[in-house]
């Protein structure tokens, strides 16, 4: 058994172990979860050297042939490490935040980790679908049990929205099975590559759309995003962090991993329309973020805006755009995850998410203020911090495809400065009201330890992007190359262009 | 290797030490770190130049790859030529003086370590900007100095006006950077690289664009960036507000160095601009318009820092005029002399403000020449320099610009001359109101400590003699010198305009005090218009900012997002519930009914799959 499978088994085992913990020793769940998740994180670093060498491919169910086929490349590698990094961080930030049903909370966190690693590693379409649904369950409970007042509305909305999309994806997976006779993704790609399986234009487009809509809801791509603000506002801190940092990336990951290589032609066909939606999301998300009175909603809408960049980068079908998009998935995970943590820290102190309940926090909590500032600056794409690299690559690629894309998308960069700086001014600067003075204190060691790795990553990923980009580039180059394999579509189009010959 | 990286790295180290540990360090150590790091950086510049002279070609050092993807490869690469050498000397030299000055000026302030940490960080970014050998690395410095500007304008973060001014500076600069970023994208598309030498040598053989083409677009977009950073029309509005920051910041960032980054960037891109004459004309026009507009506002302001702020905007306009008419070296020459005399004006104003315990209103000053004589004497040097009195520094650089403007289009020269007169007038007005007549305030003015007047004295000497630095001749390897003899008449006219401005100010504020006020009230509406800065801020709020916020709230959020989209989703949900309620009858609990459905479903499925195959 290799490392990748161990990374799957340990959180799953941890989930069961925590559930079996006697209620009387419930508080030990935190420590146990911290140890398990830290161990998983450290172990996951072992994937970095040679990501492609951890393939496992064995039969799971014989009929229909569903295989336990897991493998990773430069695309999934960093997303897995991001997930394993964030789980121990989420344990730390929930330490005192979660007061009821403690062991279940941490159990679900580990179950979520299991599902996420599975989603990013699965190479069998059915297995992927299973993991995809597995992640839904713990998040449903994380919001539904430990959330704020309107948690039931939010969690049902989250669940139904995502289910609506994944049902479409399931239908498409089953259809592909009926055509290819296998769920194994790499086999399907081989069949498509050597021409033994060809999807006609009439097949490709609906299949692409079925997958794409499922993923687009998860991203979320405007206008399929309205579950997100509700889910974020109602979720407990750790839930928001996992949701924003990793679960949204399941959508963008899915697009890159499955939509592009399998349905390259349809994807290219749809690219201009999707790019327009992405750009609308960038601008509208940012404008709506600007007028939010609630901090979490503000950050949630900013995610809609940021993820618009990712989608735009993907559908540029260029090396730079895809590299930027994947890098931006990680960047967003780091900086927006940190923002949700910081908002959570504030909430733990003052029990309010309204911006107007704060003011002058910088005076009473200077470290919190400085870290919030650095995170905000990362989020608005200041050079030498992480988001800049991704945004630059994406916008550069967008400009190469169509300058108008870059013009409109870059407006989002201006607006991001507006909403983040105005938030920072209102919450952190100015005179400190008595209410804030008596409740808000600076970060303690645990809180500092939880956020420090993310701050370090913001600088590292901004200054030394070469630690990450080459592996990502290699995976993207392969995907880009595969996204042109389905030849039948091309055959149909070429006569239209060459008819002058006859 | 000459280790160019040390030049920005030294202040960065200072920033890290003071930023991380400054809260627990005594002031003496904070000073030593902050001033010491800039001093070492300055000395290293001298060392490097000493080793590289005569520096007739570009010297490049490559350290590592920053971003690589596909054909795109952006290195950490620093380079130095005579243009950057001039900028380096100004930035580290004037920067050093201002750091020393600030140890005195800020000595009573809270957040002392924070101030110097930010100041050192600014030096790091500014030096990166100047040394960068590609557009993206220049952009790093460019955005970085903007960040430091934001932090330092909002240094007094308890004051709402200060933090709002900081936000304004950052956001307006972002609008400029939007243009700059688009220019970078186009440069990469056009040339396949962002490295300066490669881009410029690729541009060399291209024909000059007689109608607007890609190069014109690039140059205009670069100018949008420059207009943001260097406070040109229509993006100048942040700079006057930036005076909320401590005065050393106004001197260093908002007068001597950062705001000239736009001038530097355009001059650096001269190879592109020379191929885009239309863009050059736009640059010249923007410069001229800014110069006039800001100078007229400067005549009416009473806050001593605001007067100098509008003066800065106006002088930057001069520099862009120079660039636009092709006199790149004259523009840089004016950057240098302006750095001397404007830093001096601000530091001197700071010394006045320091002496008056925070008073900035010229109406509450007066007669200070006897009370703070050193400040007065040094400021007087800046005064004659900016007013264009020969043979002091401002005269030389302004003269170069006006002559070049005349060569390009005589009407530009004439507007420039009028602006020179206005410039001399408003500076003289400020000087007369501050130092002459009777003291109108109620403080007890005291002279500043040597840490403050020492730098003033050095800058005073530079303001007087800076005209003899022969910058244009030094820059000849980068920007070939223009041919053409100095026309004595043109010089005499511009000097006369300056002297007229001084004389008029003397007449209005010394000889006939009170006359100025009655003229102002006679002018009525026109005066109000200028005094209120042509209501440009109000215009921006009414036409852009307020509609954007209101529209986002009511249309995009409440109507579109929460109403239409989410309403549709919830509507679908309710529809499903309704359908579910109807279908509940299917769940009869009757096993035989269920079995029928299962069989029907299975048959349907078999047919579907079979049909597909």
Protein architecture, described:
The complex is a heterodimer of chains A (502) and B (613). In chain A, strands 1-2 form a two-stranded antiparallel sheet. In chain A, strand 1 (56-61) and strand 2 form a beta hairpin. Chain A contains 21 helices and 2 strands. In chain A, helix 5 (125-146) runs antiparallel to helix 10 (237-262) and helix 12 packs antiparallel against helix 17 (403-428). The N and C termini of chain A lie far apart (61 Å). Chain A is mainly alpha-helical and 502 residues long. The longest helix of chain A is centred in the middle third of the chain and has 32 residues, at 319-350. Chain A has a domain at 270-502. Chain B is mainly α. Helices cover 73% and strands 3% of the residues of chain B. Chain B has helices at residues 6-21, 27-52, 82-105, 112-131, 135-153, 160-191, 196-203, 214-229, 238-241, 247-256, 261-268, 270-273, 277-298, 304-324, 328-355, 368-371, 373-386, 393-408, 410-435, 450-465, 471-474, 488-511, 515-523, 525-531, 536-583, 591-612, and strands spanning 59-69, 72-80. Chain B has a two-stranded antiparallel sheet with strand order 1-2. In chain B, strand 1 and strand 2 form a beta hairpin. Chain B is globular, with a radius of gyration of 30 Å. The termini of chain B are far apart. The model of chain B has no long low-confidence stretch (mean pLDDT 90). The interface between A and B is large, with 55 and 54 residues.
